[in-house]
């Protein structure tokens, strides 16, 4: 319990003023007002009352082990290693109390032997039921318990991976840590893994408010509201319209867990608040080094349940290219986590929604402690067993500047050796990323020993930087790279461009949703407008007879370029592909040009789609260029604004362009689903290089 001085208590209880501030999105003002409150909350929530003596205890009960540190109590099934109970702040169990106790908190994965998966299944769900419990550490300061399962070579029904789930409780800590060690030995059979996660389900009658960012938080409907007849499934099972919810304020809304997905770089803290009890339950992830596919990979977090997820690997927003595939005999080891499951509370007089801010402060504390020094596994190295990289990234584009440009805001990272951009499909190793400052300087700390390439991408410039030098990182190594120069793809000066090269389609026109299918959280949120359900249907409504035509000399891409090129629904229920036209003018100064123009097309996502490019004649066959079928990102259905990044360069002969009006046609012909299509990041047409020298 927290202690507050009388003037602070008076401040936070004055006529509900702080609640009004929060709900009017005055977050910064509220944060300043309650800064002293949070400082007190942190210190008191992380330490015991000086007049009391807390003892860290390990208790054995029938089929369970209990860890009690005087602040909270954690109950785990023995030997399976399921989280069955969390007692805190007078609540006997914050976890869900319906169903079997192994459905409350658990590690699980989805896997399959290659070639065994059918179209009707995504693989075998394995809740990772351990067979052995072992106390790794027990002293006055911490307890660490292992729940492990060793693969039996005679078994064909369990994933061929040794799995060791760990749980750590520290004295005076308001929460527990969890991580897992996955290991394959040489000679083991081939296997595919789709998903690895830690899932925790909370008491639905208590936890009613979800927060995943400052802007994305709200009171949430109940899981019962999704079940017919209260809820009606829409185009796919995850999306449900709430027809008769228990709380009438949610009536008519659409609930879909994918509306709450987040990029890996932004998943630091998310969770739930029991507003009646003034108790928060949070998952804090101080590092994303163990997640697959780099900082932009999107994952699920918290959603209706109330559910709290730590997803370490998934194929969401990428597709089959991110199935974790191991060959026959391939050895592998990886540590997922630790993540911190954090509980906090306020006195009833304090607005419970402020627990979010206190959880953010705790997140900063956990980040400063990373890498943790209390884990006893040799597979999780401490800071003195890791290395670091420093350097500066510059951009060289002679058509923009005669001088090299600092790569301001670029993301620079280390990942397994590969090709340009391979980091966004990499999942077996660890990745370490840092954001460069205004001058392009970067520092990547706490890098595990191993072999890496250096990768980067720079907002405002197309393509990827890749340094194919293989860096061998050893404990304590500090590698200074000096100045590095990225030369983005460019053959000539820009004739015209559409969009902003930022790997998303966020700058383009995003329509208002159908008022029958909204999530109220995003109604007035311009930054999250794309998260509304059913926006793919708006294209046919806005362009009922003819496809989009965009004039680069007249139109504004933020108003006139629809943010996704999708199929058009026919009256008979089928679908047609779509063709977009880009119109532009040539004057007589360029009529004598020879050579090739260069068309750069950066795609933010593709889902079972094909991009065909034609010039002047929309019916010519074959097209000037085609990607063939690419992508299985499913970004359109999952309310995303990007998936995998694709970059194409198309040679456009000068002879195919003429004086006056010209047209380039972009066709997406594949059409058996409303969710097939493309999102563009950026399009640019470059003059032949000779123009630069002439001018």
UniProtKB/TrEMBL annotation:
GO molecular function annotations of the record: carbohydrate binding; lyase activity
Descriptive protein name: Probable rhamnogalacturonate lyase B
Keyword Signal attributed: yes
InterPro entries: Carb-bd-like_fold, Galactose-bd-like_sf, GH-type_carb-bd, Polysacch_Lyase_4, RG-lyase_II, RG-lyase_III, Rhamnogal_lyase
Native organism taxonomy: Eukaryota, Viridiplantae, Streptophyta, Embryophyta, Tracheophyta
Assigned keywords, A-Z: Lyase, Signal
Domain of life (superkingdom): Eukaryota
Pfam families reported for this sequence: CBM-like (PF14683), fn3_3 (PF14686), Rhamnogal_lyase (PF06045)
All residue ranges annotated as the Rhamnogalacturonan lyase domain in the record: 408-479, 494-685
């Amino acid at each position: 319990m927290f202690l507050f001085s009388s003037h602070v208590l008076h401040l936070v209880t004055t006529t509900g003023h702080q609640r009004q501030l929060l709900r009017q999105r005055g977050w910064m003002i509220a944060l300043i007002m309650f800064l002293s409150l949070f400082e007190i909350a942190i210190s008191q929530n992380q330490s015991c009352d000086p007049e009391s003596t807390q003892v860290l205890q390990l208790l054995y009960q029938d089929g369970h082990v209990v860890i009690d540190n005087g602040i909270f109590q954690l109950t785990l099934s023995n030997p399976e290693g399921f989280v069955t109970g969390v007692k805190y702040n007078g609540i006997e169990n914050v976890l869900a109390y319906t169903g079997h106790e192994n459905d409350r908190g658990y590690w699980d994965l989805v896997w399959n032997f290659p070639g065994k998966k059918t179209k009707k299944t995504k693989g075998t769900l394995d809740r990772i039921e351990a067979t052995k419990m072992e106390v790794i550490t027990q002293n006055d300061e911490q307890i660490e318990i292992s729940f492990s399962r060793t693969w039996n070579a005679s078994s064909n029904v369990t994933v061929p991976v040794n799995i060791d789930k760990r749980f750590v409780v520290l004295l005076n800590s308001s929460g527990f840590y969890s991580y897992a060690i996955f290991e394959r030995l040489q000679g083991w059979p081939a296997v595919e893994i789709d998903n690895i996660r830690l899932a925790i389900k909370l008491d639905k009658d208590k936890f009613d408010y979800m927060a995943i960012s400052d802007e994305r938080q709200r009171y949430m409907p109940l899981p019962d509201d999704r079940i017919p007849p209260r809820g009606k499934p829409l185009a796919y099972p995850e999306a449900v319209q709430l027809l008769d919810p228990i709380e009438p304020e949610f009536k008519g809304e659409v609930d879909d867990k994918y509306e709450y997905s987040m990029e890996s770089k932004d998943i630091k803290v998310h969770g739930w608040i029991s507003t009646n009890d003034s108790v928060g339950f949070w998952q804090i992830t101080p590092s994303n080094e163990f997640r697959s596919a780099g900082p932009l990979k999107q994952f699920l977090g918290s959603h209706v349940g109330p559910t709290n997820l730590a997803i370490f690997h998934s194929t969401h927003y990428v597709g089959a290219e991110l199935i974790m595939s191991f060959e026959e005999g391939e050895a592998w080891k990886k540590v997922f986590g630790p993540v911190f499951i954090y509980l906090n509370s306020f006195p009833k007089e304090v607005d419970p929604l402020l627990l979010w801010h206190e959880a953010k402060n705790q997140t900063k504390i956990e980040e400063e402690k990373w890498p943790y020094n209390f884990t006893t596994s040799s597979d999780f190295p401490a800071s003195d067993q890791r290395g670091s990289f420093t350097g500066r990234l510059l951009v060289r584009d002679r058509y923009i500047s005669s001088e090299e440009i600092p790569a301001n805001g670029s993301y620079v990272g280390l990942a397994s050796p590969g090709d340009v951009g391979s980091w966004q499909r990499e999942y077996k190793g660890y990745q370490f990323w840092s954001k460069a400052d205004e001058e392009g300087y970067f520092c990547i700390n706490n890098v595990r020993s191993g072999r890496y390439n250096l990768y980067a991408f720079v907002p405002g410039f197309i393509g990827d930087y890749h340094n194919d030098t293989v860096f061998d990182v050893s404990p304590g190594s500090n590698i200074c790279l000096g100045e590095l120069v990225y030369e983005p793809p460019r053959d000539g000066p820009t004739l015209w461009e559409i969009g902003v090269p930022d790997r998303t389609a966020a700058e383009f026109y995003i329509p208002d949703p159908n008022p029958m299918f909204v999530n109220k959280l995003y109604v007035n949120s311009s930054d999250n407008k794309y998260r509304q359900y059913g926006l793919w249907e708006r294209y046919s409504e806005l362009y009922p007879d003819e496809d989009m035509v965009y004039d680069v000399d007249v139109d504004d891409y933020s108003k006139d370029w629809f943010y996704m090129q999708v199929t058009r629904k026919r009256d008979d229920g089928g679908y047609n592909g779509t063709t977009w036209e880009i119109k532009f003018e040539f004057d007589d100064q360029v009529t004598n040009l020879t050579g090739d123009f260069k068309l750069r097309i950066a795609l933010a996502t593709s889902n079972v789609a094909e991009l065909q490019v034609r010039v002047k004649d929309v019916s010519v066959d074959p097209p000037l260029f085609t990607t063939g079928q690419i992508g299985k990102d499913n970004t359109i259905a999952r309310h995303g604004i990007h998936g995998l990044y694709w970059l194409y360069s198309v040679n456009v002969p000068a002879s195919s362009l003429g004086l006056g009006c010209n047209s380039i046609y972009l066709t997406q012909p594949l059409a058996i689903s409303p969710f097939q299509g493309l999102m563009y990041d950026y399009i640019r047409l470059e003059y032949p290089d000779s123009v630069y020298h002439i001018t």
